[in-house]
Amino acid sequence: MIPASNLTITIVNTAVNNMPLDEEFAQKGTLELKWNGGDDRHQYMMPSELNFSMEVIDAQDLAFKHLFTGNEKQYQVVITNENSDVIWRGHLLPEQYEEPYEHKILYVNFTATDGLARLKGKRLPGELYKGRHSVITIINECLKQTNLELPLYFSPAIRNDFAAVGTDYTKIFVDGGTYLGTSNKPDDCYKILEGLLETLGCSLFTYQDKWFITAHNAYEFDAFSSNLIQYYVYDDGEFTGFEDMFINPDVVNFEATPQVSLLPPLKKVTVNWPVDEPENILPDDIIQQPYETNLQWQNPPAIKYWSRSQGYMGLRQEPLGERRLPDNISVWSAGNLSLSDDEVARRRNMVSSEQYVVMTQNGIVVQDNRNHYMELSQPVYLKSVPDYISFSITLVGIFNFIDNSGPFPALDETLYGNDNLNYAILYDGQMIISNHPDYINRDAYLLDINFEGGSVNNAANPKRIVGSLSIEDLQLPYPGGELQLRIYSGAGGNINNNNIYIDTVGMRNLRIIYTADKEQVTTVSRDIDWTTEIEIDTIHGGNVNDLSISHFTLDATDNLLANYTEYTPIGSRELTTGYVPPYTTNQYIEVSQADYNALETAVNDGKELYGIITDTFNYTQIRTSYPASFPMFRIVGNQYYVYLEYVDGRVFNYYVLAGDVIKDQLFIYNQTTAQTNIPREFRELWSRSNIDTLNENKRYTAVRAQLVHDTQPAALVKIDASVFGLLDPWTMLQYNIDGVKRFITTDLSLQLDEGMSQVTMVENIYQPDVETTTTIINEE
To answer: Is the pLDDT of residue 521 over 70?
Structure first.
């Protein structure tokens, strides 16, 4: 309970060295501090506001005009007690001022808020709407938009069953793309925060200069025990420690006749989670990845989603429907200074608008392609019943005619075809569809082969071989496996001594359709006579599949962040002089001299380099071992460059997209501690945070629904009343009505100058052993 005497309200001008304003007089009966909640046990957000009126004693017109501002954080209002402890903090609402036009003592009304309600219309920083971020990061960034920089006290309701994660929500990640609507319009912070709190089963409010996010199942009280709530404490999203806060119920005294009602126990709790798995398990830009470049010498961005098996094979983009450009007029070469700017722009535009992902052999003739291929950088994990896929692909092979002494020879499938243009779908490493000669059932999955292009007599205009296949409803061997797609380099060369080989392979079409789940509906029911039902809408859930971006992802490695020292790329450039094939690109990354020296020393000392690729959150190792003739480190004039290529063949990202610089993060790994890998199945294994059972091993939505039954297992007493004294939103209340009962505050209004509270309080009962039946339905 808040002491009613000696409270001070101060208005501080944050724009002028946090200067307190001169003392003013408030109108009696107008000092009202409110936490706006509701009338049931399950509140998610309780925005607070302070309403007051200030006196104009000399009838001066617009006496408080200086408080009329468009800056929503200029005037901060702080309520403190006699010990200068902060009870509440907020900001005056901007762009609002009204007073009666009277020539006598008058009063001007003001409102200050904690900023939660004003989150409507405010957005997160743009980078948080893509890639994966911890739950704490998203919450912290939302709360920063209130302009109150307060520590966050978080008491989780649900924990993951992987011990290294548990209730540490800095290790539980969400994809920022979840918060983009169907029209790709970002959700505002209010919607994001409200949805997260409903998903987490917690309530949010500010009190005593803190943000409290408290689990609905945290107020477990036993009269014979030491009762406390343990909070994770975060400062600007960084964990600073734990703090235990003890539950000591305040006994309340009603001023007048309270209104008493009963809330029934729940028959059924339904949790709806929009899984929204796409039918096509591959990204929309899997074969075409448009980009922008503003610099003539700049390489195109690295190819996404694919990696290569051999160091001399290249991944890039080029037109497949037109003749292949000779290497000596490559549109992104720094050596093409003889080309006009218009010609460079024309060719760049042609490639960037009509490009397809291709794999090139860089002049190497491959006779046996079984170890020469491109494949998905991350296999796709699939688990649902029934497990069927539909598959369609169109491969294009571009010939290189080495001998220019005569016409391009006539070709047919007896010379080139399914023995030369190969693909494979693997499931947990085993081929299940392929036309590769190694696959025993290849005859059932041969491509339909055609040839394109006319007879020509030079390597700049090769013919093309095209192979297509479409398969419907292929059943996977078993549920729960990783699907991998592999595209092989062209096999065979020098047919009939014509020096012809498939130099480049690309795709015009690629789709893998899977049984997609659109919504997961979880119902947890009780066999009781009561009929009341409620629904909860979560924005996240637990799923082992990678198809939905709305599932929780687990990461136990970020506690090793201190083992990595980050270095900042400042540019990129092609360095052709000294370039040694067959490496993927001649793009070098520019760094500062100090970073250059540190990176070179680390490599010489045998330390490992890692990068975090744009839009991902895992560390990927960078290759540091090259032939002696290849310079990984180069100094050009007064600029310092490092060649950075990942061990899987991808190139370190540094490029311009829509005017923004997109770049990977670069690290030196300073220790050899093994990283912790979390088994995928733990995405679906969750428990309530404060039960005695070690692990419940339940789906997230099932735990979330059970949580509601636990906190409303019987008829609950609800009281609306005027109470003597100033209550607070955190402390449990106690009153003897049909026996001693304890209550949670769900709505609260304080008359500060009168020492009275208007409260809605709901009985607190917590029974984690309520017997229920769970049904989970995945709707397609």
So the answer is: yes
